[in-house]
Structures are given as C-alpha cells and as structure tokens.
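In practice, a research group might receive sequence data for several interacting partners and want a quick structural hypothesis before committing to experiments. The following worked case mirrors that situation: the sequences arrive first, and a predicted assembly follows.
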Amino acid sequence: MTRPVDTAAVATTIQSYEFGPQDFRGILRDALEKGASMRFATAGSSMTPFIKDGDVITVAPPPPEPKPGQIAAAVSPANGLVIVHRIVRVGEDEVLLKGDNLNKPDGWVGGADLLGIVAGVERGGEPWRLGITRHARLVAALSRAGLLRPLLRLAVWFMKR
Amino acid sequence: MKPTLDKVYKPSDDVVAREIEGEIILVPLVSGMGDLEDELFTLNATGMAVWKLLDGKRSLKAVAALLAKQYKAKPAVVEKDVAELAAELLERKMLVEVKGRK
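A structural hypothesis for the assembly, expressed as tokens:
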C-alpha cells in the first residue's frame, strides 16, 4: 500500500535573498562564466564617493585587456571575498586593485579571480558616471600615487565650508 | 508551454542555480543579465529533487518514477506534480527540452 506523501514540487518567487559571501561569489562567477552580466547592490565604503554603499552596479565579463581606471569585481587575495575595486595598474596577466577610499592596494589579481568589470552604476535609480566612465584613468592615477584620498578630503572640506 | 512526460529536459543555460542550506536558489539570466535586485526563485524539497534529476538524460516519466519509488508515492500523482513544475520552469525559460532524446 502506498503511503500518502505530499509530492508537490513547487517553485516560489522570492523578492530578495541574503547570500552568504561564498554563495554570492559562486553565483557571480557562474553567471559571468556563462557570458552574462550580473546586477546587484553594493555594500561598503571602500569606493566612496564613486561607488557608495547601496549603489546598484552591473558587472560584465572581463574584457581581454583590462585597463587602468576600470573597476573590477574580483576575489580578494586577502580573504577570498568578492571585492569591487579599481584597477590601478595592469601587468602581463594580472591587475593591481585598490579601493579608491583605501590606503593600500589589495594586491595583484588575475585568471579566474578577476570575475568581471563594472559596466554601470546606478545611484537612486539614475545612472552614475563620475569616476566610472568619466575621468576613470585620472582617478586610477591619483589613487595609485596616494593622492586621491587627500584630494577627496580636501574637496569635502571645501564643500562643507 | 506544456511539457510531455516522454520528453527529456535539462536546466537552461539562462539560469544560475545554487544549493544553499538545503534549498536551491535560481537566478534567471534574462537577455544575458542576472538581476539580484529582481525576482529570484526557490524550489521546495521535492522541486529540488526534480531539478537534480533533470539532467538532460532522463525523461520526465523516468524522473517521476524515481521519485515515486523514493517517496513511496503513486507514480500517477508524482507524474502530475513533476509535470506541473516542469511547466512552470519551461514558462520561465529555466528549463529546455533536449531534442533527439527519449
């Protein structure tokens, strides 16, 4: 005699999901390896003011030749988490990443750990281009030289006066 | 789209699936874009079992037979449940038919 069992197979729509760091990295990697882009909200202040906490970014698969100034999504050499930081130097097969708002670079990242490149930033539902497509190389040069943070602080000081 | 029990299906390339803490999260890639700020999908335990068996080799009927045995349930009931899930996944383009396999 068969036992009555609920065998209903159900797909449920969910409006949001809080991914853990490893699962987020896996989802992002899987999508980008399929050639797709991924859109998601950022967290943190390491790229302020060009990418702020809560901005929504679109990450596309990495181009064959990444360029200084582009912002990459990558696996952090320090802790394996996904970081979204700027390319400040390009090596033969690797790129040097640095958060605009950080003092030190993250280190060199290459191969499969370079997940993708930021193709768009939305802030408050509107496209945001400053430091992303506009002046990105200049921002990278200033960041590499250690001048970006002092200049940004100076700019904030002037704006508050 | 209505699935056919004799046909073979597999997960579409236009979906990213991740098993997290006993459930499967499905992220559709619509027009080459996955959007974590938009709707995602999750499958219940039976749905997850079906998803894992949809490997592009087994027909829906074979999937249902395996589950019916596993759950000690009536094959006809499981076939209906499997077909309903397949229909929903096909509708959302998360499942594709594997042509030439029966």
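Before designing any experiment, note the following. The longest helix of chain B spans residues 75-91. The beta strands of chain B are 9-11, 15-20, 23-30, 33-35, 40-43, 95-97.
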